[in-house]
Amino acid sequence: MNLIVSAIGQGLLWAVLGLGLFLTFRILDFPDMTVEGTFPLGAAASVAAIAHGFSPLVATLIAIGVGMLAGLITGLLYTKGKIPILLAGILVMTAAYSINLRIMGRANLSLLGKPTLFKTHFLQSLPMYFDSVTLGMIMIVVVTLLLIYFLQTDLGQTFIATGDNEVMARSLGIKTDNMKIMGLMVSNGMISLGGALVAQNNGYADVNMGIGIIVIALASIIIGEVAFGELTLNQRLIAVTLGSILYRFVLLIVLNLGFNANDLNLLSAIVLALCMMLPVFRKKFSFKHMMKRGLETND
Amino acid sequence: MTKPILKLDDVVVNVNQNTPEQITILNHLNLTVNEGDFITVLGSNGAGKSTLFNSIGGNLKIDGGSITVRDKDITHFSEERRTHFLSRVFQDPKLGTAPRMTVAENLLLAKKRGEKRHLKPRGLKPNMAEFKTLTETMRNGLEHRLNTPTGSLSGGQRQALSFLMATLKRPDILLLDEHTAALDPKTSQQLMEATNDRIKEEKLTCLMITHHLEDALKYGNRLIVLQDGQISFDVSGAEKASLTQEQLLTFFADIEQ
User: Fold this and answer.
1) Is residue B132 part of a domain?
2) In a 3-state reduction of DSSP, which class is residue A110?
3) What's the rounded mean pLDDT across residues B236-241?
4) Could you count the other beta carbons within 10 Å of the beta carbon of residue B173?
5) Is residue B87 part of a domain?
6) Transmembrane residues, as ranges (chain A) (predicted)?
7) Any domain includes B48
8) Is B101 within 8 Å of chain A by CB?
9) With an 8 Å Cβ cutoff, are B98 and A170 in contact?
């Protein structure tokens, strides 16, 4: 039971990564590697801020701010510097590694004995693991509602249009460069928020905690899509959170099969690859398809 | 009606500028478009038709000359800024609409062409009635598909939608870049008729590239032919109305030689 509650809590905390990446990967339609740098950046910034005596809430806001800054830099490199998005993201991600070491002063910084968002009286009075479920739930509801509101505004619609058809968007007077920069900023702000929450929940920040983050974030998006199929945009946002929780359950199962935590990145990659290939498999092995092939002449 | 709305003065566009491979696409081109003109643009491949449109539309920087709209120099205006007064329909049905957004969402985007967009709710519902009457004018069933993603429309419906989007907020200048070329003959003719009706009704100023000599003669009040980056033939009014396909063909044959 505890394991399941813990998995749901983790799924909720990590879901904000999936939602952040959804903005770039699915709406703007490009892969943003910056997230591998902004996740530890958010962790490092919040932990360092708390260590310097800031309140956990302020520290978390600082984390969001620096994450947005990283997104801004990627956006400028991509739109104004004309560097391909994949490389722009990798550049900022690489630079962030050094920044994170600078911020923390070392590779690993602990929050032992320091306040965190999870150490409030109310959250501590809950049964074990319910602190992350509660905080994760509050955050996800707020973030999802804000996103749903934003995407239905005039600005949100132009943001969607930019990812959907850039030529058309420009011909309607939409400044597509600004939209991409905005998307990268909001997305990385959210990833950084995820880093800040995960670090406070774990009680430490580590400079290497960003490795494989994009795979985990993608997994929640893809698992949500594979599990729930055709959905409206608003439903898809909710599916990302459910996908994130499902992903934690998958990890729980494979860990119970005897794999250990060191295998997690390998397993994450395999889970994601399988999910992404599912449409191909479905096509290949579908009964209808086999019937049709059987009826086709061989010439 | 004869007030000039768009003027191109001595416009030059080169590719590979300052290299040995430099090619001049628009060669000191001059063109004055009057308010209410419906101009059909003819020319062989490589004559510079698309370059002319891209220069007017602003997604191509010109290397010489100037472009003025209503006596205002817009030579250095960005593409986005020009959308305040200009709209265009592309040849490729895929270019004119956002595939994952519904027909109504696309129309709503187009309704705010060139405007600043804020964090205000988009307000789709109050517009639905207007969009329904508007799409009905296309006579191709678009009005029943307002809530369908445009990606699943037929090419003809998508192109009709692109055209509606370009004219929904009245443009001072409308550019049609072979917008019926990718469609089958019947659909193409249907859209061409609807285009003509709307241009006349709204008294739009329009330039239309076409490869159909028939269309070029049938529609519009003026016809220009582009050749080697210049306008080699320009007729309007009664002279254009009496022009025949044979005369045009002879003219093209002369160009070839």
Assistant:
1) no
2) strand
3) 88
4) 22
5) yes
6) 12-28, 48-78, 85-105, 128-151, 181-199, 211-228, 237-258, 264-281
7) yes
8) yes
9) no
Q: How far is B110 from chain A (nearest CA, A)?
A: 6
Tell me if A268 is assigned to some domain: no
Whole-number average pLDDT of chain A:
92
Does any domain span residue A25?
Answer: yes
| Count of domains for chain A | 1
Which CATH number is B202's domain given?
A: 3.40.50.300
Determine contact: B97 vs chain A, CB below 8 A.
yes
For B65-90, b/e burial (b = at least 16 CB within 10 A) is bebbbeeeebbebebbebbbbbbbbb
Residue B215 in any domain: the answer is: yes
Q: How many angstroms away from the CA of B101 is the closest CA of chain A? A: 8
Q: Which residues contact A263 (CB under 8 A, 6 or more apart)?
A: A254
CB contact under 8 Å between B95 and A173, yes or no, is no
The arithmetic mean of pLDDT across residues A239-267, rounded, is 90
DSSP, res A23 = I
Residue A12 is part of which domain span? Answer: 2-210+227-235
State the pLDDT confidence band at A298, using cuts at 50, 70 and 90: very low
A148 is a domain residue? yes
Please judge whether A154 and B105 are an interchain contact, meaning their C-beta atoms are less than 8 angstroms apart.
no
Indicate yes or no: CB of A153 within 8 angstroms of CB of B121.
yes
> Given pLDDT bands bounded at 50, 70 and 90, which one contains residue A286?
low
CA-nearest of B55, B115, B51, B97 to B79 is B55
pLDDT of residue B111: 94
Residue A291 pLDDT exceeds 70: no
Contact flag B96-A168 (C-beta cutoff 8 Å)? yes
Name the residue range of residue B55's domain.
4-98+171-256
Q: What residues of chain A lie within 8 A of the CB of B97, using their CB?
A: 165, 168
The answer to whether residue A15 is domain-embedded is yes
Per the DSSP assignment, residues forming a β-bridge with A108 are A206
- Candidates A26, A28, A146, A154, partner chain B, best to mutate (most B CBs within 10 A): A154
pLDDT at A35 exceeding the cut of 70:
yes
How many domains does chain B contain in total?
A: 1
Q: Does B97 score more than 80 pLDDT?
A: yes
